[in-house]
Amino acid sequence: MTIEAFENLNIPDAPGVYFWKRGGTILYIGKATSLRDRVRSYFSADLISARGPRMVDMVFKADSIEWLETDSVLEAMIAEANLIKKHWPDYNVKEKDDRSWNYVVVTHEPFPRVLTVRGRTLDVEKQKKELKVRKSFGPFTSGSALREALKIIRRMFPFIDRQSSSKYTATFYRQIGLAPDTSDEAARIEYQKNIGHIILFFEGKKGKLVRELERDMDACAERLEFEKAAAIKRKIFALEHIQDVALVKEDVETLARGQSAQNPGFRIEAYDVAHMSGKESAGVMTVVCDGETNKDEYRRFKLDPKTGNNDTANLREIIERRLKHPEWRMPDVMVVDGGQGQLNVAEKILRERGAVIPVVSVVKDERHKPADILGDPDIALKHKKAILLANSEAHRFAIAYHRKLRRMRNPRRGKL
Question: What's the CATH class of domain 3-95?
Answer without folding.
Answer: alpha beta
